[in-house]
Design goal:
By secondary structure, this protein is of the alpha+beta class. The strands form 8 sheets. It has a 5-stranded parallel sheet with strand order 16-17-20-15-21, with helices on both faces. Strands 9-10-11-12 form a 4-stranded antiparallel sheet. The longest helix has 22 residues. The chain is built from 22 helices and 25 strands. Among the domains are: 87 residues, no CATH class; 201 residues, P-loop containing nucleotide triphosphate hydrolases (Rossmann fold), CATH 3.40.50; 136 residues, no CATH class. It is elongated, with a radius of gyration of 32 Å. Helix 6 crosses helix 7, helix 9 runs parallel beside helix 10 and helix 13 crosses helix 14.
Length: 622
């Protein structure tokens, strides 16, 4: 593997100097003078600007009016850049809106004192002593009425990575909006941009001021550290973790945000792994050991920053882990989450966060969860002579350098790397969801460390892409085959169910009876009559080969209802007839159209499962 280096010399000094200049600029902006409200500004006396007092907003007003929602609530950007929902128009609310430019507020909407007579010869003219609150309010509401309606749930974006309508990557660090073109780094104050509102928030990390080449990226050192864990897939898994670090910063700019779940027994280094990943994202990641889904979405709010949860264990008597995984599933493709409040008003936001979980025993998950995850298994540590102190953590610079790589390389990532991995994995039978998960992680890892490093550790990215696709397909096959489609899962549950009648000292299963029917009398099995005697005990029927269709094998007839079927599926996702709807989603060559079949003396509409076609399908899947 290529030796890990870091940025040094003149380039590092330039980056440090740029940071200092930005801090100085920020301090000067916050401490800018606010002249006496009694003094003219640009030759204009107090309260005499064009359009005063409320026909329009004053020129160069530090407060910007965003608009109002369908309920009439007005939204503004305060002098300091924060968004404010104006629910009251008293002086505390207006003071918060204009601070620290209170003299400016009084200059625009002045309330005057009375002339003060000192003597017969000397009279102090009226002075601006406060603000005309009502006129200020009327100007702001009037301006909001001129603006398009504003929906804070869909148009307001928080901190983290985003993409505009032109495909450009934007990083919102809280105090600035950042863009990069591969060489230059540009920044601007948070504002309305491309139909979305970015406002000032608590600071998170800012990109490194100088471009970072793959050879000097901290990602190479981080990958070296990650490879010292005892992974089940020692070549692939550390690369997937590195890729997650990059995708975690991409956040809302991604079409799909892969989830990583690391599992393993006590002492395999899961918590230490969390520490390494957290250090790489220091200042840009939210973490928790004991939390709930509500606790997470109350913290992430509008942000697209990543979230890490350690010890997300499977526990009886609680659905807390499942609800957290459900939240991660929604965030994978950016779904809306709505929750009711005490005031009977729903709170809605769009989750666009990447999640990293770890546990000894992961909680129960359905295929809709697993297909969005890279499941990583850890074994006992085998690092003779190596201690935790040997790991090199540089949280003050690592995340900022990786962020700069992401920003500079966004076009290459989206235009070249993602399509390359999508084509490579698609040629080896990976589903679209699996490509979104594994392809995105691998593309992000290559962006950080380059092809040379991936080639050195055993992933032939440039040398033999066809072989690369085969390696990844074989490495992930076990995880992907666990993710049965709904119709397949329903049949799996049905086939494993026992029939409450003893035959030859055992209780047969539905699947066992189907195997005998598939074998047929000529091979020592049963015909439909023999199988029917057992299947009708659980409200099922069957037909011999060629009876349902000339080209079909023997079929299992499954009705939409029946007391025994209700019992079989009662504690599953397919209860109350859900199995029937799930079977309708199967390929037409496997589940034939419904027809009437006699079960227990009654003719019922049943879906017909072609057992030969299903066996061929299962063999190919295996």
């Amino acid at each position: 593997m290529a030796k890990a280096q870091t940025q040094t010399g003149a380039r590092a000094l330039q980056a440090t100097f740029a940071d200092a200049e930005r801090v100085k600029e920020e301090q000067e902006w916050l401490s800018a003078p606010d002249p006496d409200p009694n003094q003219p500004r640009n030759g204009v006396p107090p309260g005499k600007w064009e359009g005063a007092p409320f026909d329009r907003m004053p020129p160069d007003c530090p407060v910007k009016v965003v608009g109002r929602d369908s309920e009439g609530s007005v939204y503004c950007i305060s002098t300091t850049g924060h968004m404010r929902k104006m629910e009251r128009w008293d002086m505390p609310a207006l003071t918060d809106l204009f601070a620290p430019r209170l003299n400016t507020m009084m200059f625009y909407w002045p309330a005057w004192s009375k002339p003060k007579k000192i003597s017969e010869e000397k009279i102090i003219p009226p002075q601006v002593v406060r603000v005309e609150r009502d006129k200020c309010m009327m100007a702001i509401i009037n301006e909001a009425a001129r603006k398009p309606d504003f929906d804070p749930n869909t148009q307001h974006r928080g901190r983290g990575g985003w993409q505009d309508s032109h495909g450009n990557f934007i990083w919102h660090s809280g105090g600035w909006l950042w863009r990069a073109d591969g060489k230059r780094l540009e920044r601007s104050r948070p504002a309305q941009h491309d139909g979305h509102l970015y406002t000032r928030m608590a600071a998170t990390i800012e990109p490194w001021a100088m471009p970072v080449e793959a050879g000097e990226s901290p990602a190479r050192r981080i990958l070296e550290d990650l490879r010292t864990w005892n992974w089940q897939r020692p070549v692939l898994d550390p690369v997937l973790v590195l890729g997650w670090i990059a995708t975690a910063l991409m956040g809302g700019a991604l079409k799909a945000r892969p989830i990583v779940f690391a599992s393993g027994g006590a002492g395999v280094g899961k918590s230490r792994l969390h520490e390494v990943v957290k250090a790489a994202l220091d200042g840009a990641v939210m973490t928790s050991v004991n939390t709930t889904a509500a606790g997470i979405y109350q913290r992430i709010k509008l942000d697209s920053l990543p979230f890490m949860v350690d010890e997300l264990e499977s526990k009886s008597g609680t659905n807390r882990p499942e609800s957290i995984i459900e939240l991660a599933r929604v965030a994978y493709t950016g779904g809306d989450i709505s929750r009711g409040g005490q005031d009977h008003e729903a709170t809605t936001f769009t989750a666009r966060n990447s999640f990293f979980f770890s546990a000894i025993i992961p909680p129960p998950m359905g295929p809709q969860d697993k297909t969005r995850m890279a499941m990583l298994n850890l074994g006992p540590l085998e690092r003779p002579g190596r201690t935790e102190r040997d790991l090199v953590l540089k949280p003050e610079t690592d995340g900022r350098m990786i962020l700069r790589q992401v920003m500079d390389g966004w076009k290459e990532f989206s235009d070249r790397l993602l399509p390359f991995y999508a084509a490579t994995l698609g040629q080896h039978g990976l589903s679209a969801r699996a490509i979104d998960t594994y392809g995105t992680l691998l593309a992000a890892a290559e962006l950080l460390v380059g092809q040379e490093v991936l080639e050195d550790i055993g992933l032939p990215v440039a040398e033999d892409p066809e072989h690369l696709g085969r390696i990844i397909a074989e490495s992930t096959a076990a995880d992907r085959t666990e993710n049965l489609e709904h119709w397949h899962k329903a049949l799996d549950i049905l086939f494993q169910s026992t029939i409450d009648q003893w035959r030859d000292g055992v209780r047969p299963t539905v699947g066992g009876v189907c195997e005998e029917l598939l074998r047929g009398p000529s091979n020592g099995g049963w015909d439909a009559k023999g199988a029917r005697e057992r299947l009708q005990l659980v409200n099922l029927g069957c037909l011999d080969k060629g009876k349902a269709d000339a080209n079909a094998g023997p079929v299992l007839a499954v009705p939409a209802d029946g007391p025994q079927l209700q019992r079989i599926f009662g504690d599953t996702d397919f209860h109350k007839g859900g199995w029937y709807l799930a079977l309708k989603q199967a390929p037409k060559s496997i589940v034939l159209p419904a027809r009437k079949v006699k079960i227990n003396g009654l003719a019922k509409h049943c879906l017909l499962v072609d057992l030969e076609a299903f066996e061929q399908y299962s063999s190919k899947a295996d």
